[in-house]
Amino acid sequence: MSALDELVAVMARLRAPGGCPWDAEQTHASLVPYVIEEAHELAEAIEARDAGDGDDEHLREELGDVLLQVVFHADIARAEGRFDLDDVARSLTEKLRRRHPHVFADVAVDGVADVVANWDAIKQAEKPQRGSALDGIPAGLPALARAEKLLSRARRAGLVPGEAEAADASAPASEEELGWALLALVRDAAASGLDAERALRGAARELERDLRGVEAARAAGKPSAP
């Protein structure tokens, strides 16, 4: 039995009659906070390792905690006769092959930009119900992550200038500089009684509204400034 098969068996035993009462009563919805928490802890472990403050043992442990969430959700679905971990893995394998035709088919690419463009086109074909390049960005993302995602999607869709055209001479030159600049903004906001997270959420909402306007105008063939 592989280690992954053993993990699946342990999870099934924990949730079976006579197993763990807490595990048995969990649902997809009740586990959402743990998924979010474990993802953040994994990110922290990766960053700590890269900074020299962490190690592979910690990273391995946090990867395991994220994997536990996947196995937990898959077992809930298995017990209800909907799908199991094999189905999850099978779907993921199919998606990876489908979205990498330059590896698994005969599509030629010339660098990362072509790979990203192909990925976006394939994803759009898979999800035709998404009428906008901005659809599918989780509303619950932290404000900064959501703003970055909006701008990334917008750049890839040509709705805003790329980094080279949009760069400001006064912009921070490194992540360290940027970090301190952001901390200073948050500090000054707090001193003025302002909520930095809420302010950025509001700005991101307005940005999304404007970008969708640009996108709609483009689709209608009307000129609009990005």
Helix content: 55-70%
Assembly state of the chains shown = single chain
What is the alpha-carbon Rg in Å? Answer: 22 Å
Low-confidence segments, given as residue ranges, are none
Number of strands: 0
What is the element string, with H for helices and E for strands? HHHHHHHHHHH
Number of domains: 3
Strand content: under 5%
Mean pLDDT: 91
Structural class: mainly alpha
User: What's the helix count?
Assistant: 11
Protein name: XTP/dITP diphosphohydrolase
InterPro entries: MazG-like_dom, NTP-PPase_MazG-like_N, NTP_PyrPHydrolase_MazG
GO molecular function: nucleoside triphosphate diphosphatase activity
Keywords: Hydrolase
Give a structural overview.
- The protein is mainly alpha-helical.
- It has three domains: 3-83, MazG-like (Helix Hairpins, Orthogonal Bundle), CATH 1.10.287; 91-128, no CATH class; 133-219, no CATH class.
- The protein contains eleven helices and no strands.
- α1 crosses α4, α3 packs antiparallel against α4 and α8 packs parallel to α11.
- The longest helix is centred in the N-terminal third of the chain and has 24 residues, at 56-79.
- It is globular, with a radius of gyration of 22 Å.
In short:
The protein folds into 3 domains: 3-83, Orthogonal Bundle (Helix Hairpins), CATH 1.10.287; 91-128, no CATH class; 133-219, no CATH class.
Overview features:
single chain; 226 residues; mainly alpha; Helix Hairpins; MazG-like_dom
What is the strand and helix layout of this fold?
Layout: H1 3-15, H2 21-25, H3 28-50, H4 56-79, H5 85-99, H6 101-104, H7 112-126, H8 143-156, H9 163-166, H10 175-191, H11 196-219
Helix pairs in contact: 1-4, 3-4, 8-11
GO biological process, one term: response to stress
GO molecular function: nucleoside triphosphate diphosphatase activity
Domain NTP pyrophosphohydrolase MazG-like: 26-104
